[in-house]
Amino acid sequence: MTIRIGTSEHDGTFYSQGQALKTIFERSAALSPVAVLESNSASTENANRLHAGEIEFGFMASNWIGRARNGEAPFTQPLDLAMAAPMNAGPLFFIARAQSPIRSFADLRGRRIAVGPRRSGMVQHAHVIFGVLGAGFSDFSAVYLDFAAGAEALAAGEIDAQFQCPIPNKVMSELAERVALRVVSYAPGQLETVLQAVPYYRRTVMRKGAIRGLDADTPQIAVINVLVTHPRVPQATVHEAVAAIVASCGELGRLNPLFSEMKQLFAPLRSQGAAALEFGGVPLHAGALGAYRELGLLR
What we know:
Blueprint: E1 3-6, H1 13-25, E2 34-37, H2 42-52, E3 57-61, H3 65-70, E4 82-97, E5 112-114, H4 121-132, E6 141-143, H5 147-155, E7 161-164, H6 170-178, E8 181-183, H7 190-197, E9 201-206, E10 218-229, H8 235-247, H9 249-255, H10 262-266, H11 268-272, H12 286-294
Parallel strand pairs: 1-2, 1-3, 5-6, 5-7
Antiparallel strand pairs: 3-10, 4-7, 4-8, 4-10, 9-10
C-alpha cells in the first residue's frame, strides 16, 4: 500500500517537510512507498482528503483541526480526524520592502497585502490576527496569491506587504536575496494580546540573520503545525509512522531546518498526557497512543 501524505503547494513549507518525512518513512517496509501530494489549500484540503480516504496522513495547522472536527466554515460537515504527531512551531509574519514606510502592524492598514490563496490556512490566520487586534479585512486590500506569486508581486511593487509562512522556505530565501526586505514588528503588548486570545499560537523569536535583512531578533507569532490522520488508517501504520518520527527527530532537523526543534514539541506529553497533542479536541490515533507509550513519552 502506498502511504499518501497531503502537504501544500510545491513551494510551501508543508511540501518540503513532506519530502523529509518520505525519506524517513521509506526506510520501513511498512511505510513504503510514500507519495507526497501537493495541495492548493493545504490544511483545509488535507482535512477533506483524510475524511474522504484519499490520503493516510496530512499536514495541518493546529488552528484548523477543531473547525474541521466541528464542521465549522469553511467545512460543510464534521470531519472524522485523529492526531498523529506535532511537526513544528513556525513563525507567521508580514514582510514589506525595506524602503517601504511599513514598519509595524499598525502600518498595514490601508495597504495591499498578499494573504495567501482564498481558502488557505494563511487567510484564516490573517483573519484571526487582525480580528484579535481590533481590525479586519475591510481595513486593508486583501490580495489572494500563493507564496510564490505573492513574492513576485511584492518584488514588482504590485502589493505593499506579504503574509509569509514559516522560514526557512525557498520562496522567502530567494526573495530576500533579490529584494531588500523588512519583517514587520508588533507594537508593545500586541503579541501578548494575540497569545492570550488564541490557544494554538506560541511566542517565537525570528533570530537576527535568519534571512537577509533581518537585522535584529524579532518576536513573532508561531503556529503549531501537525501531522493528522484518520481513525480508519490501520493502527500498525500510524504506530510505525509515529515511532519513526520520534526516533528521527535529529535527522529530520538536518534534512529540513523546519524540524530543528521538533523534539521539544513532544515534551508536554510527559506532564500533560495525551491532551497535550489533542488540538481542537481531536484525539490521538490509537496507533500514535501506543507508540508514545512504548517510547516512554506517555504513561
